[in-house]
Each structure stands twice: as structure tokens, then as C-alpha cells.
Design a protein that fits this description.
Elements: E1 5-12, E2 15-18, E3 33-40, E4 43-44, H1 47-60, E5 64-65, H2 69-83, E6 88-96, E7 100-109, H3 116-121, E8 123-129, H4 142-155, E9 159-163, E10 168-172, E11 176-181, E12 184-187, H5 197-208, E13 213-215, E14 218-219, E15 228-233, E16 237-244, E17 247-248, H6 255-282, H7 285-293, H8 310-325, E18 332-333, E19 339-343, E20 354-359, E21 374-376, E22 384-387, E23 392-394, E24 410-412, H9 421-439, E25 448-453, H10 467-470, E26 474-480, E27 485-487, E28 492-501, H11 517-526, E29 543-551, E30 555-564, H12 567-588, E31 593-601, H13 605-608, H14 613-624, E32 630-631, H15 639-645, E33 652-654, E34 666-668, H16 669-686
Parallel strand pairs: 5-7, 8-9, 8-16, 12-13, 20-25, 20-26, 26-33, 27-32
Antiparallel strand pairs: 1-2, 1-7, 3-4, 3-6, 6-7, 9-10, 10-14, 11-12, 11-15, 15-16, 16-17, 18-19, 19-25, 21-24, 22-23, 24-34, 27-33, 28-30, 28-31, 29-30
Helix pairs in contact: 6-9, 7-9, 9-16, 14-16
The chain binds zinc ion.
């Protein structure tokens, strides 16, 4: 059996094998389906259309492909990378079981790209009587292929044109067929031919360039009436036909054919250039992220140093090196562990300086030692067993939003650590976006600043942030959750320490003498609105939260935090608490209650409002890259809030992650890519 796969390696169901070990030709059955795709400079040409057609072929045989688009794409890139071959045709061969095509081979095949002389002179073709069973499906038929090969060799022809039982010419054995007469193009009806990807492109391009196309049966008897003939295909582009049997055409000098050929080549080149850019854009995003999460950077609230842990400094140094590598020359880390870098403007126009900020530490709530990220390909909506030994399962029953990501690739933990998407996804996304701008200098942009901060998770991320040195007009933290999140409102926050002094007397002789501070504490709390507590509030509803209490008869202390998005309501809550203390002091006739109250942070909205365009632009950027903005108030504080009050207005944008700070943390890869696109889009929108 002949070996079809060339070069050293092929990919079978996602794994790389030596072509001397595995021979896909051995598994070929008549029901197999396949696609041939041309690789140009490492880019699979018109890949989306080929995959779509592969699925259609499967469908025509009442089967499904068992792999996602992303998987097929990753197989192709594995093949290209392992062979280091960048300009050749590949074949995707899918072999079916009962219901599915579940054996997927991807390999390079012998390719022939016609030399210039073929285009200049046109090619010789012959007619061949046969008919495909299912003309629209690309099904392997070895017998026919062999018979045609023989015929071509014998007749010294480049292609055989198939003729059906009605005497109509339908298509080439490996190409689609077009005739030209009086500036019009004629081609056999779609129902009777294999719908080539190049054919489809040609029809699109004709439409866009006002070239009329007529689909009709073309009888062998009438071919001499046409001015020109050409065939199209993956390897041949638009190839003029000089002869069909012994009928001659001036195809290589036909104006319509020449024009169409030029238009097609231009489209092909544009496609490759566009894809190369996109590939570059996301190229290292996931590799970066996987590398970052494996570096442990847990912060520590017990520590008195800046940053709170040395591991964050190690990570900061790695990030500085990486920023330098992508071309940000001034990248540096200061003694407190803050990484800053600049992408200089590439225009003189007056464009604001925009900052992007993410934090390097991960939450002390869960260990980040030996993070072992798992990539779940083509998530099917079922339970994900993160750790079978410990029976740790990430289930849509507990996290129904998982269902939104069916068909996507997810990155999860192995159930023993947190993931650290909060906020290493933010870092990977920012660096990838900046790298894209560095590599695409034709995109005009103003100065872009980048900062990676330590100790966000222990509330110190803004402490030593040098806003002046950073020098941005405004910034975005990339530190939110699910795709689309956009936040610019957070709580106003204060804490209150309520100290109650009692008077202890022997309980047997306590009448009118004892003051039990515990009972006063209970009364105190009961006088606050019972429904304004975390367990009864959501959205914009504020609360009093009693988060600690300790005491005895002699002295009791209550610790509250007070939260509200609305500044007036926030002040009102604080007043109410003070009033309760006053009332009880009056009631007892003695000042037994002392309240120590202090504001902690404020709603950044007040600082964002005067520059609300920064939210509007972020919203617009999301919509333009196909993300629905989810704007909601943060029920907490952020470093961005503190930075806003330090003079750097700073809304928060999604990273794409879910279930932060715990073992069920996960992030869909597509959401990460969207975050990169949003960052780039914001920069572009401000440069308009
Ligand atoms: Zn975070």
C-alpha cells in the first residue's frame, strides 16, 4: 500500500507520530471523508471554509465529527511545528465508526503547484465519463482516482473533466470548472458538483466585482461555443485551460480569466496576511498564562514587608525580562515590587496616555504551590473531575454558568490549588496585547503604560503605587471575572469598632448595680436594621456587617463594617450607628458606649464620572469585538477604587475567569482572547 503522508511526522487524534510508524492509507475505507488544505507560510488557507465543508461531508453521511474546530486547528499547527514545513498541502482524513468520525489524521501530502508556464499557456484536459454518488461530499474513492490517474498519464493531460450520463460536463477530477463567454462566467449547478472552497471564493469575488455568473448545465456538445475555460482548486488557483480533448481555447489571454486570477491571488494574499496578524496576536497568550500560574506568588497579610512575599519579586523580575523582550525598553521593578513599563506613542497626535494594570499576587485563601493547570478541550457540558482521588468535581450543577462554555476550551486546576487566573490572566492578556501593537507598528497609538502590582489580595496593592511616575491620564485594571464584566462602581466603606464598658458585680447582689456589656451589645445590634446585612442584600443595597464580637460582662467589643454604593446612604448608615450608641448611652445614663469609626475607601464612581468616556470607550470596545458588556456594581473595594482617589481613574475590565480564590477557579480560553482584543480595541478607539 502506498504511503500518502510525507515528511517526518503526522498527527493522529492530536498526537504526533512518525510517518514511518503510522500509515493513514492503511485505515482508509470508502466512507472516509477528507479535506486538502494548502499551507502558505505556515497559514492554512481558507481554513474556516474547509472545516465547514468537512462537517458538511460528515453530515451527508449522517455522522458527526468528534472534534471541535479549535482541536482541528491545533492538530494542524502541531503538524506544521513538528515538521517545520510551512508551504505544502496537508490532508485532514477522518475515519468513521458507527456514529462519529472519531479518527482524525492530519498529514502533509505530495503537492504540486503548477509552474508559471502553465498559467501562461493553459493546460491540456480530457473528458472522462463518470458520476459521483454524492457529488457534494468529499468522499475518498480509490478506484476512480486510480483509473483517472492512468488516463491522465496516457493522454499527457493535467486534469480529467467529468461527464455525467446526460452528457454534461460537471467538474474536474480534482478541480471545479468554469467557462467564459462574452464577459459572463458559466459554471455547472452547485447540486451537481463538489463545492470547492476555491470555487466558492471565485463566486464571492465575481459578485463583489460585478462579474456575472450563470449556473447551468454545460453539454459536451456546446463547449466549442465558449471563449475560454478555467479550473480552480486549492493548489492551482485560477488555471486557464488550453484544450479539452481536441477543442482549443484562448483561455490564457481571456480578459475575464486574467482579471479573476489577479483578484483571487490578491484575496489569497490578504487572507494569509490577516491570519498571520491574528496568529501573532494570540500566539503566546496561553503559553504565557500557563507559565505564570506555575510560579507561586501568594501574598501574606501577616508580613510587614513590601511586597509581602519574595516570590512576588521573583515573578516581577520575570515579567520585566519579558516586557524588555517584546520591546518595552524602560521596563523595571521598584524596591516595593511594582513593575512598570511604557509603550511609547508612534504618532505626534494628541492622544491620552492610557494605563493597563494587573496584580501579580494570588489570594492567601488557597495554596498556589504546584499549580498544575488542566486544559479541557471542547468542553461538553458534563461534570469535570478535577481530582478523582479526592473526588473534586467542577460541575454545572454547582456552577451553572459552565454551560455557557460548551464547545470551548477551558483551563482548570487539578483540584488541589487555586488557578491564579486572578490575576495572571490579566497580566498575560495585557502583555499579549502590547506585543501585538509592538509587532504591528502601522497601528497608530498614543503612549500606553503598563503596571503589575503586588499584594492586591491583601488590600495593599495601591499602597506604594507611584501614580506620578506611572504618568497615565487614566487606566484600566484587568482584574474582573467573566467575559464582558465592566465595573466602575464599588462600595463606600467604613469600619466601626463599638466598645461597651460594663460594671461587674457579684450576680447575687447586682440589683441596680450591674451593667452587663454583653447585653448592651446585643441590644445595640438589635437596634440596627435587621434586613441591612450581607445575607439580605445584593446589587446596590448596602449593609452593616457585624464581623467580630468578643467580650464579657465587664467589656464587650463589636466590630462592624459599613458598606453602601451611594455616598449619602453611606453617611446615613454611619449616622444611624452613632445614634444608636447615643440613645443607649442616654438610656443608661452613662457613657458606656464608645464608637471608633473610620472611612476605608470610597466609590470610584465619583472619580470616574468626570471622565466617564473611559467607561463608554471600554463598552464600545467590547461591543466592537463581539462581547456583551456586563456593567454591575462591585460589592467590595478594588485597588482601582483607591487608585481613582489617588488621581488615577481606574475602572475594571474582565479577565474571563470564574470562581476566583479557590480550587474551582477556571477560565475559558476564548474569554482570555476577548480580553486581549478589548485592550487593543480601547487603544485603537482612543487613537481615532
Ligand atoms: Zn484580582
Amino acid at each position: 500500500m502506498d504511503k500518502e503522508a510525507i515528511f517526518n511526522f503526522l498527527v493522529y487524534n492530536g498526537e504526533v507520530y512518525s510517518t514511518s510508524e503510522v500509515n493513514p492509507a492503511k485505515s482508509i475505507k470508502n466512507s472516509s471523508i477528507y479535506e486538502v488544505i494548502r499551507i502558505i507560510e505556515g497559514i492554512p488557507l481558507y481554513l474556516e471554509e474547509h472545516i465547514e465543508r468537512l462537517r458538511k461531508s460528515a453530515h451527508l453521511l449522517n455522522k458527526k465529527l468528534s472534534v471541535s474546530d479549535e482541536e482541528i486547528i491545533s492538530y494542524i499547527h502541531k503538524l506544521i511545528d513538528s515538521n517545520k514545513e510551512y508551504n505544502n498541502n496537508i490532508k485532514i482524513l477522518c475515519i468513521g465508526s458507527e456514529n462519529d468520525f472519531d479518527e482524525i489524521y492530519v498529514y502533509f501530502i505530495k503537492s504540486f503547484y503548477p509552474p508559471k508556464s502553465f498559467y501562461k499557456e493553459g493546460i491540456h484536459t480530457v473528458l472522462y465519463k463518470t458520476e459521483r454518488q454524492k457529488p457534494n461530499a468529499k468522499i475518498f474513492n480509490k478506484n476512480l482516482r486510480n483509473l483517472i490517474s492512468e488516463k491522465l498519464q496516457k493522454e499527457k493531460a493535467f486534469e480529467a473533466l467529468l461527464v455525467n450520463k446526460n452528457g454534461d460536463i460537471t467538474e474536474g477530477s480534482r478541480s471545479n470548472l468554469f467557462f467564459v463567454k462574452d464577459e459572463k462566467i458559466y459554471t455547472p449547478p452547485a447540486s451537481k458538483v463538489l463545492l470547492g472552497v476555491t470555487r466558492k471564493k471565485i463566486l464571492d469575488l465575481c459578485k463583489r466585482n460585478n462579474i456575472e455568473v450563470v449556473e447551468k448545465d454545460i453539454s459536451v456538445n456546446e463547449i466549442a461555443e465558449y471563449d475560454g475555460v478555467f479550473i480552480t482548486g486549492t493548489s492551482i488557483d485560477v488555471l486557464p485551460v488550453k484544450t479539452i480533448n481536441n477543442v482549443k481555447f484562448d483561455s490564457s489571454e481571456n480578459n475575464i480569466i486574467l482579471t479573476l486570477s489577479k483578484i483571487y491571488i490578491k484575496d489569497r494574499e490578504d487572507y494569509v496576511n490577516q491570519k498571520r496578524k491574528e496568529m501573532f496576536k494570540m500566539g503566546k497568550l496561553i503559553d504565557r498564562f500557563l507559565k505564570y500560574v506555575k510560579m507561586e506568588t501568594t501574598s501574606n497579610s501577616e508580613s510587614q514587608t513590601y511586597p509581602s512575599t519574595n516570590s512576588q519579586l521573583d515573578f516581577a523580575r520575570v515579567l520585566v525580562e519579558e516586557l524588555k523582550e517584546i520591546g518595552l525598553k524602560d521596563a523595571s521593578v521598584d524596591s516595593n515590587g511594582y513593575v512598570m513599563a511604557t509603550l511609547p506613542a508612534n504618532t505626534d497626535r494628541d492622544i491620552p496616555t492610557i494605563g493597563f494594570i494587573a496584580h501579580m499576587d494570588t489570594s492567601p485563601d488557597m495554596t498556589a504551590k504546584n499549580v498544575n493547570p488542566q486544559i479541557i478541550k471542547n468542553y461538553d457540558g458534563s461534570d469535570l473531575v478535577l481530582n478523582s482521588e479526592k473526588n473534586i468535581v467542577l460541575s454545572p450543577k454547582d456552577f451553572p454558568e459552565l454551560k455557557k462554555y460548551i464547545g470551548e476550551d477551558l483551563i482548570t486546576t487539578d483540584g488541589t490549588t487555586l488557578l491564579g487566573a486572578d490575576d495572571k490572566a490579566g497580566i498575560a492578556e495585557i502583555i499579549t496585547a502590547i506585543e501585538y501593537l509592538v509587532n504591528n507598528p502601522e497601528i497608530e497609538h498614543g503612549t500606553v503604560k503598563v503596571a503589575f502590582t503586588p499584594d492586591e489580595e491583601i488590600g495593599r496593592g495601591a499602597d506604594k503605587f507611584d501614580v506620578e511616575k506611572f504618568g497615565a491620564d487614566f487606566a484600566y485594571t484587568i482584574d474582573g471575572g467573566e467575559v464582558g464584566e465592566l465595573e466602575y462602581e464599588n462600595f463606600n466603606a467604613a469600619y466601626a469598632k463599638v466598645k461597651i464598658k460594663g460594671r461587674n458585680v457579684h450576680p447575687g447582689s447586682a440589683k441596680n448595680k450591674m451593667i452587663n456589656s454583653i447585653l448592651i451589645a446585643m441590644k445595640f445590634n438589635s437596634m440596627l436594621p435587621a434586613n441591612e446585612i450581607p445575607a439580605h442584600t445584593e446589587g446596590y443595597e448596602g449593609f452593616y456587617h457585624l464581623n467580630d464580637i468578643n467580650g464579657n460582662v465587664e467589656e464587650t467589643t463589636l466590630y462592624y463594617i459599613i458598606r453602601d454604593h451611594d455616598r449619602d446612604k453611606f453617611e446615613e448608615k454611619k449616622r444611624k450607628l452613632m445614634k444608636v450608641a447615643e440613645y443607649l448611652n442616654d438610656d443608661i445614663g452613662e457613657k458606656v458606649i464608645e464608637v471608633e469609626m473610620k472611612d476605608q475607601y470610597y466609590n470610584m464612581k465619583e472619580k470616574i464620572k468626570p471622565v466617564i468616556h473611559i467607561v463608554e470607550i471600554a463598552e464600545k470596545a467590547m461591543k466592537e469585538v463581539g462581547v456583551t458588556p456586563i456593567i454591575k456594581p462591585i460589592r467590595g473595594g478594588t485597588d482601582g477604587a483607591r487608585l481613582s482617589y489617588m488621581g488615577l481613574p481606574c475602572p475594571n475590565i474582565f479577565t474571563g475567569g470564574h470562581n476566583f480564590h479557590g480550587k474551582f477557579e477556571y477560565i475559558p480560553i476564548k474569554s482570555m482572547k476577548k480580553a486581549v482584543e478589548v485592550i487593543i480595541k480601547i487603544i485603537k478607539l482612543y487613537s481615532k
